């Protein structure tokens, strides 16, 4: 393993840009609109279409672009806070933010494209869902909510709070709003009430508290009762009803937390069922080893690719991460990693291997393996060696678009207010790349200042990504200065 380990934060790769977004994105069609603006289906002009050499077909990578009129945003500071929080979130069941664009009048959020449609549409189409379908959805929802709450984030307002901090700004849709929100003092527990309402609607097709108008609905939320007497509930299990009852407790301190809900027998039975059906490819172990042995810049690039790769290309790894994450907090501990790899057929990792893997895979040094860190370490080469992923990654580091990555560009990409790539770190990066220590490397840094030019071209970048742990001799052989 290489001696140098650079701290990498996934959120560093989410750029905030200004200018005309249509210079870089094709807007294909409008997907919807609302009070703040509209959402569009879009494609990046440079990397939107690419040839997948492994499948020999042209693939389009599409994104969603949410365009919001600044003048319609009542509290722009709170809106910016929501964006800041979204950048920090890293979970398999939470949408990924790729970058933001801004003009004098409009703010654009570029996110991954979710094509499954709205849950409410599926419920109204079918009147209600089967209990197994509802359990699958609620498990995913509580998995995400548990992560948010453990990160001290209240979903309804997307704001950071302390565990018992009270909030006083009512926000929500009448059917789903919790009683304490109407009274003006509430905590993250209001999210769990809303989840109880969603679950009730999924299983019965109707909300627990209805009414002819908003005022009547809200009055019933405060003072009404619900029951399971309707015919739709006859074949619903007692466990499902128990979970709903514990979520729709009017007293917030008596209500289930998201963690308690995730660990409820009804949810855990669904998790065990899904986990039993997940067979993890043994290649995951080999990919982990290759990641651990790779040079820092390759690991950095894999993190960037993992943060933007379409979900359909990593579905198996997404399932593996969820299977490993036994307590549902959205990150892996050393014990969860040890137990998880035991389920992989033919796994030969020793205890020392696991600790080494944990140390290297934890690229942001927070003591856990976060979702994107796991994906980066386990990616199959046929995924990350696709042309559009490589070109997108290279273009991200090549800020001025001149076809080479300089030391200044690398420092700019791998730094924020909490971390700066020092000259010493740059020097050590040179050392780990210059395997024969003859300083005849133009791979990452060639001659310019103090006899060293700091740049890497696209061909050299590709060679780095193709190699597992060190530069190929054939590449270095032609880099005489």
Automatic annotation (TrEMBL):
Residue ranges annotated for the EF-hand domain, each copy included: 312-347, 349-384, 385-420
Which EC class, in a word?
transferase
Residue span, Protein kinase domain: 25-267
One MF term in the entry's GO annotations: ATP binding
Q: Which Gene3D superfamilies match?
A: EF-hand, Transferase(Phosphotransferase) domain 1
Q: EC number(s) in its UniProt entry?
A: 2.7.11.1
**Family indicated by similarity:** Belongs to the protein kinase superfamily. Ser/Thr protein kinase family. CDPK subfamily.
Protein name according to UniProt: non-specific serine/threonine protein kinase
**Native organism taxonomy:** Eukaryota, Sar, Alveolata, Ciliophora, Intramacronucleata
């Amino acid at each position: 393993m290489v001696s140098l380990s650079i701290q990498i934060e996934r959120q560093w790769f989410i750029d905030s840009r200004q200018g005309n977004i249509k210079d870089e994105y094709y807007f294909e069609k409008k997907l919807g609109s609302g009070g703040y603006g509209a959402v569009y289906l879009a494609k990046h002009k440079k990397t939107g279409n690419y040839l997948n050499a492994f499948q020999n077909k042209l693939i389009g990578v599409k994104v969603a672009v949410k365009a919001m009129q600044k003048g319609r945003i009542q509290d722009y500071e709170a809106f910016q806070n929501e964006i800041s929080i979204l950048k920090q979130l890293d979970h398999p069941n939470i949408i990924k933010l790729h970058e933001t664009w801004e003009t004098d009048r409009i703010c654009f959020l570029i996110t991954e494209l979710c094509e499954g449609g709205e849950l409410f549409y599926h419920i109204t189409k079918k009147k209600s869902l089967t209990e197994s379908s509802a359990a699958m959805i609620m498990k995913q929802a509580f998995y995400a909510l548990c992560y948010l709450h453990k990160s001290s984030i209240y979903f309804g307002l997307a704001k950071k709070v302390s565990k018992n901090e009270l909030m006083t700004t009512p926000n929500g849709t009448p059917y789903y709003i919790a009683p304490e929100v109407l009274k003006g003092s509430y905590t993250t527990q209001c999210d769990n009430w809303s989840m109880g309402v969603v679950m009730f609607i999924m299983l019965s097709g109707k909300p627990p508290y209805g009414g002819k108008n908003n005022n009547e609905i809200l009055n019933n939320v405060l003072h009404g009762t619900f029951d399971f007497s309707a015919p739709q509930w006859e074949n619903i299990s007692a466990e499902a009803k128990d979970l709903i009852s514990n979520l729709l407790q009017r007293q917030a301190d008596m209500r289930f937390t998201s963690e308690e809900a995730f660990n409820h027998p009804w949810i855990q039975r669904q998790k065990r069922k899904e986990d039993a059906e997940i067979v993890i490819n043994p290649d995951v172990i080999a990919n982990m080893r290759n990641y651990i042995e790779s040079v820092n810049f390759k690991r950095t690039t894999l993190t960037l690719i993992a943060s933007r790769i379409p979900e359909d290309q990593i579905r198996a790894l997404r399932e593996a991460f969820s299977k490993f994450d036994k307590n549902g907090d959205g990150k892996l501990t050393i014990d969860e990693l040890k137990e998880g790899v035991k389920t992989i057929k033919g796994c030969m990792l020793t205890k020392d291997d696991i600790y080494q893997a944990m140390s290297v895979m934890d690229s942001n040094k927070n003591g856990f393996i976060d979702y994107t860190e796991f994906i980066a370490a386990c990616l199959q080469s046929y995924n990350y060696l696709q042309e559009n992923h490589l070109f997108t990654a290279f273009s991200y580091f090549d800020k001025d678009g001149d076809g080479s990555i300089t030391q200044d560009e690398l420092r700019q990409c791998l730094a924020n207010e909490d971390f700066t790539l020092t000259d010493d770190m740059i020097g050590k990066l040179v050392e780990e790349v210059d395997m024969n220590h003859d300083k005849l490397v133009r791979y990452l840094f060639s001659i310019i200042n103090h006899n060293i030019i700091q740049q890497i071209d696209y061909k050299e970048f590709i060679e780095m990504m193709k190699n597992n742990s060190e530069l190929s001799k054939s590449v270095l052989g032609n880099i005489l200065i």
